Amino acid sequence: TAAGSRCLLLLLLLLLGVLGAPALGDPGPLEDVVIDRYYIPKICLREAQMGDFIRYHYNGTFKDGKKFDSSYDRGATVAGVVGVGRLITGMDRGLQGMCVNERRHLIVPPHLGYGSIGVAGLIPPDATLYFDVVMLDIWNKNDKLQITTLSKPERCNRTVENSDFVRYHYNGTLLDGTPFDSSYSKGSTYDTYVGTGWLIKGMDQGLLGMCAGEKRSIIIPPFLAYGEKGYGTVIPPQASLVFSVLLVDFHNPKDGVFLEHLEVPESCKRRAVTGDFVRYHYNGTLMDGTLFDSSYSRNQTYNTYIGKGYIIPGMDQGLQGVCMGEQRRVVIPPHLAYGENGAGDKIPGSAVLIFDVHVIDFHNPADPVEIETVFRPEGCNVTTRNRDFVRYHYNCSLLDGTRLFSSHDYEKPQEVTLGANKVIEGLNSGLLDMCAGERRVLIVPPHLGHGESGARGVPGSAVLRFEVELISMEEGVPEGYFFIWHGEPPASLYEQMDLNKDGGIPADEFSTFIKTQVAEGKGRLMPSSDPEKVIADMFRNQDRNQDGKITPDELKLKSDEDQEKIHEEL
Description:
The structure is a single chain. This protein is of the alpha+beta class. The protein has five domains: 34-139, Chitinase A, domain 3, CATH 3.10.50.40; 146-251, Roll (Chitinase A, domain 3), CATH 3.10.50.40; 258-362, Chitinase A, domain 3; 370-474, Chitinase A, domain 3 (Roll), CATH 3.10.50; 483-569, Recoverin, domain 1 (Orthogonal Bundle), CATH 1.10.238.10. Helices cover 16% and strands 30% of the residues. The protein contains eleven helices and 28 strands. Strands 1, 2, 3, 4, 5 and 6 form a six-stranded antiparallel beta sheet that branches. Strands 7, 8, 9, 10, 11 and 12 form a six-stranded antiparallel beta sheet that branches. It starts with a helix and ends with a helix. Residues 1-26 and 565-570 have low confidence and may be disordered.
């Protein structure tokens, strides 16, 4: 029966045990190392080979679990060359083929361990040894720097060379991934020269050829790092180092300003020079693209003189020779910007600055109005002078084409008496010596326009462009006059003006008389769009006591008034 069979098997096992036969599953004496790879990392870039230098941790025990040695207890890893007889044979064999971070259980028989002699006071003779090992580092004296590019910007105009000054972020780990340092944790880049001995040799080499914004993984063997001594408590002796590096920016102390002309207008009649006052928009970034300032965000241009030290030296140089409307990239090394100290909390020390500039306009304080005659009629004999009354159409814009004002937005042309301080000085100058029907383009610098303060709708220090067309003109009268006689005035002026001969001249009589003189060609009024107002102003000027009528004592010609003033001054 089944129960009888089970009883027979049990009796057989007991009998074998009494007779001293080997138990089932006992392999007997080991001939070689038993290897149990109980943890293998997913990524294994390299396996330990004969002659490789390795670093590892281990616990050593006997079969009963009693510990006889441990690198952990000593607080230091074990470093040595594998496969060349410097370790017990079983360990030499058991470590070969291991990956970094791999964990193994090794069972080393006596003849591959310390044999029949053992180690006095530590390992008895003929002891089987049990090791729990984790591999931490593998390298070879023939190794070279291992560089892997993780990401690289599309544009790379320049790469790192020896003697360049670099600013970079990094995470530093041992080969098993143990972190030992990070610039990110310090909140600032690591800044240094390349190829001048300030860095370990491997980093000096690993940074060469990098672009600003590039990310690299750099694996450095110990002999290009800290070698046999290690570094402090964080980097053990003979440790390979892994750096994940982001190059933020770099420059050379010999660098000047680098210019890139992004867009230059086809027509560039003039280029900015020292002493010019420039209005421009800009975006300011670090080399990694971090924006630190922008005039666009303030919706206002940056306005300054160039070449006079009002701005950083690099920008003073970078704006030389710009055209109006030009878009230019200005790359400025730190010694021509904010130097080692940086500026505020947005520009780090030793930072390279990139300005993308759009020049709106510029002028020189000595500039006159620039006049371009677009059309001038034939037979132009009569031209405008100060005190003339003119009607004209105009379009006004900034030099970047921004439209400001236009007379075409209104029903009638603009009307003004030239030289009466009714328009900006530059426009007044540009309207002089014009014929009716003539068209001009005027470029008016701000000191002849609306100045540093600007006006409603006009930015401060803006150069203005006017397209003007003179519609008509009327000859003016001298300053201070409302009416002038074409010949000598009547000898009995008051009597002729007093139409009803009542000894007083009210406003209606005065108006009738003046209009008659104009109609008969004996004199002319100051030109105006409102002649009635001119006559009313004349009457008020003569009605000195403001009683509504002019008396003989009150009526005086302008020439007589001027003579009285001269007499008083004398």
